[in-house]
Description:
Layout (H helix, E strand, L loop, with lengths): L2 E5 L3 H13 L3 E5 L2 H10 L4 E5 L7 H12 L4 E6 L4 H9 L4 E4 L4 H40 L10 E6 L4 E5 L1 H7 L1 H5 L3 H4 L6 H13 L3 E11 L5 E14 L5 E10 L1 H21 L10 H18 L2 E10 L1 H8 L1 H17 L6 E6 L2 E9 L2 H15 L3 E3 L2 E3 L2 E9 L6 H29 L1
Parallel strand pairs: 1-2, 1-3, 3-4, 4-5
Antiparallel strand pairs: 6-7, 6-10, 8-9, 9-10, 11-13, 11-16, 12-13, 14-15
Amino acid sequence: xxxxxxxxxxxxxxxxxxxxxxxxxxxxxxxxxxxxxxxxxxxxxxxxxxxxxxxxxxxxxxxxxxxxxxxxxxxxxxxxxxxxxxxxxxxxxxxxxxxxxxxxxxxxxxxxxxxxxxxxxxxxxxxxxxxxxxxxxxxxxxxxxxxxxxxxxxxxxxxxxxxxxxxxxxxxxxxxxxxxxxxxxxxxxxxxxxxxxxxxxxxxxxxxxxxxxxxxxxxxxxxxxxxxxxxxxxxxxxxxxxxxxxxxxxxxxxxxxxxxxxxxxxxxxxxxxxxxxxxxxxxxxxxxxxxxxxxxxxxxxxxxxxxxxxxxxxxxxxxxxxxxxxxxxxxxxxxxxxxxxxxxxxxxxxxxxxxxxxxxxxxxxxxxxxxxxxxxxxxxxxxxxxxxxxxxxxxxxxxxxxxxxxxxxxxxxxxxxxxxxxxxxxxxxxxxxxxxxxxxxxxxxx
Length: 446
């Protein structure tokens, strides 16, 4: 059972999140301050630490991150933060935090983030075990080389050949199995190796004989024909070592090959899983849009480009009005569909170089790199608003969606991510107040 450490100085939040995570099957330990965390970590290892950034009025979450990572690099740390602390949360990511979530946190997002942190740990453990297995195999190979009496029973392919046609003086059972019936008919590797899909090995034998230099421990591919007319792909770590006689002349070549097919396929699977997990860590699971982490990274890159080129970058911060009412009226499954449709609708209004991301809940953000002017950002916002005014037909219902959009432009409104986000957030709330006032005035007039 994974062990989690939950840190917050607000008892209600601590109790709520602890209960949610325990229902997911995790063992949860709680703490309210930095000193308690140090004491707990000195007595027990935790798989994941979830800590509020602000404790007792200070950003002690960063201190907890450093202390936990110093004690155990395998422990993943998730930071909980208010919107005003976004800049510090981004710094926490640079310092090794797995992710950060805005408070009040979305419980589903929290559970998914914890699971992804545990998946990352598992993947790293698999990779470490594979590395240990490879090291153990290499040590076993060295031991078998020292014990010549066990060559015949060794799982490695071992042989000694001589002459320009590389005639076999010795081949152990594993080597003979690779050669198959062709090896029973001839001990001449020049004629046998091409027949079993090992032309590369023959070329390397010629190279070693010609240069008198060993070929050591490199991976090669053998595609051995099978009875069905196809070929079986096998991987070997191959070593070819020239041997000398009393006159220091090349007497033959010692062949040693270890099949590593399982390890190679394992590395390929791990590489694929790593790519999948990396993609999941940067995208919202519901809408498949970039998440907060990826969006902020792209925004920071766009700012750097604009700074070099003296250009502008547009930022739209969008919040759905009345989304809670949609959830309460039609249910959370319908609310999820609304979020997916809204994300797709925003994407349809953008250029291929633009980015729309779901930051969490019903909040979206749009990045407009290489912006011509503030008017250009306003035009995109108007296009998005018009698109969202179209009713969404979900489960037989026509659902109307409204959105408030705030605009910020680099460098007029700020020169870094945090400043631009604050400006766009402020502009969004101003737009929300204007819309609410307009609708209230309309009702009074009616």
